[in-house]
Write a structure and sequence with these properties.
alpha/beta; OB fold (Dihydrolipoamide Acetyltransferase, E2P); seven-stranded parallel beta sheet; six-stranded antiparallel beta sheet; 18% strand; globular; binds 5'-O-[(L-methionyl)-sulphamoyl]adenosine
């Protein structure tokens, strides 16, 4: 099966916030799940770069518009790359092949008789790039969507015959009840269309930052309306109007949007597609809005949540889990550190993390890290059956995009596991000499964890890969088929001991002060310096030999403890296990980027043979490796956990 999943393309007039991250996380989750099931999947995201709003934003900064768009578009792409978003294509509406595809579509609409030339006069909101009839304006002529002042614009324009599609659209909604998801949003679209559709002005002459009309029309002053240009990205990304090989992914399966842009996607977009004789997407799915601590986010209030900051402090996958678990799809949600911490401590640390630790601990004690599933069927069919009743219900929630319910149900598998351990108390059975029974319970729980990890994989890809690695298997389409579809067990597990995956978080890790204020502080990182008197011979080209490199001893360390250094805004005092008899004390200048709490239990890379130095009177016996650029500092860590003291190189 082919499965095409899209996010909206984001305006390049500001950097990504958690609303953008939310849609992108959901699309990534759906795409990963689809790939795991073995479907041919194409996941599209990108940036929307034309229109008056972008032109004005660039002008304010005295930058050429293209340069401005390049910069902001790159911040989105970089963030998604940092977050390991598995998009197949990142489209930009300034891409030449996109612009070509838009012109081809426009010509086709002209040829179909759906486009005509006239004059437009109306109240235009630059911020929303939309005309509004007088009747919809708020007091003082303000925009009904964003509240900003509108201005009267009269210009020659080409129009799209939207009115022609009124009845066809209504018939389509009727015949396809799950075209708009959640279903609760369907009625608002239907009543809007029933209220009557005016033809849509689809070109502008008042500015020039947009896709120019096809040469055949000889209209150099007109540029395309930004929403026509933007919506068409979903097919130009597949090569529409050019190399159309990827058009086999059309129609899209799921197009994710925020509730504010549902109208464009559920009314204009299908009408454009009908005009182009293309099938409509299977689902347009609209999510709600995120607020912060109960308030609408805005730059002026300084309360916009920066997704990178949340991810740096709490971990991107914990953040992903929180967003999807916390809010029913379609409803508005509130971001607060407290709510995130509660989810991490109760769901991740208590339910999942503890279960994993218990399996690892018991396998170490009772069976030298090897778990054999031979006796599970004899002692635990009930638990396995119960788990499969839950697993069987999951596709339904995914199909309805009820990800919070999906996760809620999935978590019941951990409850079954935790309960089995309490009820069957393997430690008692071991004492009583009933080793087979004890080991069967451990194997039951290992299998439950394996099955749940497979189904959690799309939400928390790296975390579940680490769990699978600790249990000695890999999450693939084959293991999905075996563990979930054919309800199989893994015959044996060879367990790896890993540090706790979800250390508890006791207090908020992010400072609450507005980000702008914090950025004014100078970024000085105090780290012990190399002894510069030591002579090393470096070649004239600045190259060193391998032997010289190996004079530096680099090791993996596990942070056992971390504390803020009193009276220092920059330093943290860490105790790091390097596999030696006593942990090292390391004073690191990373307090502005990491809270002490968030480091405990994590792994770091340490320069282990550095001459000890004193910082603020405290001995520092090593240095952490970190990368720093204009966006901040991040610690270098192993991608999967390693024994403390493992050497790097
Ligand atoms: N460029 C258009 C989309 C064109 S798609 C063909 C656009 N861009 S946007 O950057 O303003 O918004 C992108 C998405 O972010 C929208 O789906 C919007 O709903 C979503 N969000 C913006 N603020 C949000 C929150 N506070 N919370 C959740 N989502 C929010 O619209």
């Amino acid at each position: 099966m082919k499965n095409y999943i899209t996010t909206p393309i984001y305006y390049v007039n500001g950097e990504a916030h958690i609303g953008h991250a939310y849609t992108t996380f959901i699309a990534d989750t759906l795409s990963r799940h689809s790939r795991l099931m073995g479907n041919e999947t194409y996941f599209l995201t990108g940036t929307d770069e034309h229109g008056q709003k972008i032109e004005e934003a660039a002008k304010k900064l005295n930058k050429p518009t293209q340069e401005f768009a390049d910069e902001i578009s790159a911040t989105f792409k970089n963030l998604w790359d940092e977050f390991d978003i598995s998009y197949d294509h990142f489209i930009r509406t300034t891409d030449e092949d996109h612009k070509h595809g838009v012109r081809v579509a426009f010509e086709k609409m002209v040829a179909n008789g759906d486009i005509y030339k006239d004059f437009y006069e109306g109240n235009y909101c630059v911020s929303c790039e939309t005309f509004f009839p007088e009747s919809q304006l708020m007091e003082g002529g303000c925009c009904p969507d964003c509240g900003r002042a509108t201005s009267i614009v009269k210009e020659e324009s080409y129009f799209f015959r939207l009115s022609k599609y009124e009845k066809t659209l209504l018939d389509y909604y009727e015949a396809h009840p799950d075209f708009i998801l959640p279903k609760s949003r369907r009625n608002e679209v239907i009543s809007f269309v029933k209220g009557g559709l005016n033809d849509l002005s689809v070109t502008r002459t008042s500015f020039s930052w947009g896709v120019h009309l096809p040469k055949s029309l000889n209209e150099p002053k007109h540029v395309m309306y930004v929403w026509l240009d933007a919506l068409l990205n979903y097919i130009t990304a597949l090569g529409y109007g050019g190399d159309e090989a990827r058009m086999q992914f059309w129609p899209a399966n799921i197009q994710l949007v925020g509730k504010d842009i549902l109208r464009f996607h559920a009314i204009y977009w299908p009408a454009f597609l009908m005009s182009l004789n293309l099938p409509l997407p299977k689902h347009i799915a609209a999510h709600g809005w995120w607020t912060r601590d109960g308030e609408k986010m805005s730059k002026s209030k300084g309360n916009v949540v920066d997704p990178r900051e949340v991810a740096n402090h709490y971990g991107v996958e914990n953040f992903r889990y929180f967003m999807m678990r916390e809010v029913p799809f379609g409803q508005d949600g509130d971001f607060s550190q407290r709510a995130l911490i509660d989810r991490m401590n109760s769901d991740l640390s208590n339910d999942l993390g503890n279960l994993l630790n218990r399996v690892i601990g018991m396998s170490e004690k009772y069976s030298a890290f090897v778990i054999d599933s031979s006796d599970v069927a004899q002692y635990h069919t009930r638990e396995i059956d119960d788990a499969h009743t839950i697993l069987d219900s999951l596709p339904h929630y995914l199909h309805e995009l009820q990800l919070h319910r999906y996760l809620e149900e999935l978590w019941k598998i951990f409850t079954i596991g935790n309960k089995a351990i309490e009820e069957h108390a393997p430690w008692v059975k071991m004492k009583e000499g009933r080793k087979d029974e004890a080991l069967a319970t451990v194997a039951l729980v290992a299998n439950l964890l394996a099955k749940a990890s497979v189904m959690l994989h799309a939400v928390m890809p790296k975390t579940t890969a680490t769990i699978a690695d600790a249990l000695g298997f890999e999450i693939t389409t084959q293991t999905y088929t075996h563990l979930i579809l054919t309800k199989g067990l893994l015959a044996t597990f060879t367990i790896k001991k890993i540090p706790p995956l979800f250390p508890r978080v006791e207090e908020p890790l992010m400072q609450e002060a507005p980000k702008a204020m914090r950025e004014e502080q100078p970024l000085v990182v105090e780290i012990p310096k190399m002894d510069d008197k030591k002579t090393t011979t470096v070649s004239p080209e600045g190259l060193i030999t391998i032997d010289q490199f190996f004079q530096t001893s680099l090791k993996i360390g596990t942070v056992l403890n971390a504390q803020e250094v009193p009276k220092s805004t920059k330093l943290l005092k860490l105790h790091v296990d390097l596999g030696e008899e006593t942990p090292r004390q390391i004073i690191a200048g990373i307090r502005e980027y990491y809270s002490a709490q968030s480091l405990i239990g994590t792994q770091v890379c340490v320069v282990a043979n550095l001459k000890p130095a004193k910082l603020m009177g405290m001995l520092s016996e090593g240095m952490l490796l970190a990368a720093k650029d204009s966006e901040g500092l991040c610690l270098i860590r192993p991608s999967t956990s390693r024994r403390a003291g493992s050497s790097i190189g």
